[in-house]
Amino acid sequence: MIAADARILWQLLRGHPRSGDHAADLAGFYGAQADSYDHFRERLLPGRDALYADLAAQLPRQARLVELGAGTGRNLVRFGERLSTLASADLVDLCSPLLAQAQKRWQGVSKVRCHLADACTWQPQQPADVVTLVYAMTMIPDWERALDNAIAMLKPGGLLAVVDFTLTPTQSPWARWFWQHWFAHDGVHLNGEHLAALAERLPMHVARLGESRLPYLPGVRVPYYRFIGRKA
Predict the structure, then answer these.
(1) What is the pLDDT of residue 41?
(2) Collapsed DSSP state (helix, strand, coil) of residue 19
(3) Which pLDDT value is given to residue 152?
(4) What is the dihedral of CA 188, 193, 196, 197, to 10 degrees?
């Protein structure tokens, strides 16, 4: 997989396109990475296994799930045997190359549906029991609109689960500046306001902060959070 990592690192060094067309920029950036996306991101994106383990313990049987910014659809695998108890899973993404990987992965599984659509506006036909945003809010320009849309599609008592990179008050000004600019080069916009916005909208919640190493950057760590909130 060294050659695949090299291709992805080259894309990361080149940076995220900035044409003004968000869908086209996503396709341009991730198109060459799509077939190797999951292998590299398993080491880059922490906290997903823990988030889905927490969710699996709280899901009702026959739950309707929506994942906004679902990418390749890999996260559903993290439910393990609990996946069979879902009534449906709608995977929504604006990046066509990544969504094509999700369609290939879940082809023939009728309860899993893939939608090429905007997380800020797409709505399911029926209210959802759980909505997930997994390393998606930092990639959505109008993240507040996407967050409000996610909460709007939840039924009362439904769960919103989020995991993402963040900035924290305990970081030095230099560290905050570095991570903001380092990630923004690749279209990921770290924002210390996300967790506060989640907590304000969903007061019934559990949130945890952590730090993770990054591939090929020995000795440095980046903060991230896990959040599960319940709609009143």
Answers:
(1) 64
(2) coil
(3) 98
(4) -80
230 token code pair: 């319940």
Confirm if 150 and 90 have CB atoms less than 8 A apart.
no
The average pLDDT across 133-139 equals 95
How far is CA 203 from each of CA 15, 200, 227, 230, rounded to the nearest angstrom?
37, 6, 11, 8
> Distance from CA of residue 146 to its chain's centroid?
12
Instruction: Report the distance separating Cα 203 and Cα 223, nearest Å.
Output: 22
Residue for token pair 């108890």:
85
Alpha carbon distance 213, 221 (integer Å): 5
At 10-50, the pLDDT tens digits run 455 555 556 666 777 676 666 556 565 566 566 678 899 99
Dist CA 109 CA 97 (whole Å): 20
Cα–Cα dist 214/230, whole Å? 31
Q: What is the pLDDT of residue 89?
A: 98
